[in-house]
């Protein structure tokens, strides 16, 4: 789709922007749905797709050497360990010291 | 590599220009800052479903409009990078100007939102949700402001025909700010 649209060494940025705007409209429409769990999953799936499009094509991550991907994954790995470390404390702990 | 690159110094072992590599390392640290906040927010949100009612007081239309503004400013900055790689410095400067305008519009909308919310009594001390809301959106707004200052500096340099490859670096930073907002918008506005 987009990769084949490479024009003068660059992908078709306007087409990617169009897809991003369409995804934004879809997110806004889904926010009105009455199925909380389904809505949540769909909205965040669309957000991940949007973030991937920006990172891959606007930030050119798709065309970067492996070393740059490694740098990005180092940051994401830190987040993963933070999440795994905090899940038992925040979610499954019976009494929370922090109220709403 | 499919997209065109401006001529600049390439790091020998990584085959990545040093400036761009530095920007990616910087962004890796930013991933931990924003990602840490988002991770902790998600975990607390999981534990406190009642935050949905608080979240319903944020203005979806303003958040959606700001998302559109940031996506469009991301387009203009990447088009500026393309213009630089084609040697069109005048066009690049004009596109960077549009990007700055996008950043300014984003901040104006954010000020409008804050004013509305504070008048309604939704202050940071009201609940943990609003503490997270002001911390995450405030930190993001500071990054937008910082990006605008950097873009303004690069814009002046490009107008003088100097250091055009920095358009790419400042663009990568601006896209990151956009990616952060792509996650903040559904988290704080759409999950009511």
How does this structure look, described?
The complex is a heterodimer of chains A (100) and B (192). Chain A has three helices and no strands. Chain A is mainly alpha-helical. Chain A folds into two domains: 63 residues; 30 residues. By secondary structure, chain B is mainly α. Chain B has one domain: Four Helix Bundle (Hemerythrin (Met), subunit A), CATH 1.20.120.80. Chain B is 78% helix and 0% strand. Chain B has six helices and no strands. In chain B, helix 1 packs parallel to helix 6 and helix 5 packs antiparallel against helix 6. The longest helix of chain B is centred in the C-terminal third of the chain and has 32 residues. The model of chain B has no long low-confidence stretch (mean pLDDT 90). Chains A and B meet through helix 1, helix 2 and helix 3 of A and helix 1, helix 3 and helix 6 of B.
- N- and C-termini, Cα separation of chain A: 46 Å
**Biggest sheet character of chain B:** none
Q: Structural class per helix/strand content of chain B?
A: mainly alpha
**Any idea of the CATH topology of chain B?**
Four Helix Bundle (Hemerythrin (Met), subunit A)
Radius of gyration of chain A: 18 Å
Number of domains of chain A: 2
In terms of per-residue confidence, which ranges of chain B show pLDDT below 50 for 5 or more consecutive residues? none
Count of helical stretches of chain A: 3
Oligomer description: heterodimer
How would you state the average pLDDT of chain A, rounded? 82
* Percent of residues in β-strands of chain A: under 5%
Question: Which bin fits the share of residues in helices of chain B?
Answer: over 70%
What is the 3D form of chain B? globular
Number of domains of chain B: 1
């Amino acid at each position: 789709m987009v990769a084949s649209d490479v024009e003068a060494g660059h992908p078709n940025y306007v087409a990617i922007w169009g897809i991003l705007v369409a995804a934004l409209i879809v997110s806004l429409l889904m926010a009105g749905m009455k199925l909380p769990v389904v809505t949540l999953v769909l909205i965040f799936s669309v957000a991940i797709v949007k973030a991937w499009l920006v990172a891959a094509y606007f930030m050119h991550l798709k065309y970067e050497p492996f070393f740059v991907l490694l740098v990005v994954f180092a940051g994401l790995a830190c987040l993963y360990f933070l999440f795994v470390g905090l899940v038992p404390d925040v979610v499954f702990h019976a009494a929370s010291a922090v109220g709403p | 590599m499919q997209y065109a690159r401006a001529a600049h110094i390439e790091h020998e072992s990584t085959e990545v220009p040093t400036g761009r590599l530095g920007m990616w390392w910087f962004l890796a640290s930013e991933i931990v800052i924003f990602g840490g906040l988002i991770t902790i927010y998600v975990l607390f949100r999981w534990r406190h479903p009642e935050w949905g009612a608080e979240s319903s007081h944020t203005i979806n239309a303003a958040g959606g409009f700001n998302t559109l503004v940031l996506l469009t400013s991301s387009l203009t900055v990447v088009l500026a990078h393309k213009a630089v790689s084609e040697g069109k410095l005048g066009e690049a400067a004009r596109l960077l100007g549009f990007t700055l305008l996008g950043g300014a519009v984003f901040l104006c909308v954010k000020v409008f939102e804050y004013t509305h919310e504070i008048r309604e009594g939704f202050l940071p001390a009201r609940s943990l949700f609003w503490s997270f809301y002001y911390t995450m959106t405030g930190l993001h707004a500071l990054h937008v402001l910082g990006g605008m200052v950097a873009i303004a500096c690069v814009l002046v340099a490009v107008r003088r025909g100097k250091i055009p490859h920095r358009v790419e670096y400042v663009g990568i930073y601006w896209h990151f700010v956009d990616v952060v907002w792509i996650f903040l918008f559904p988290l704080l506005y759409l999950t009511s």
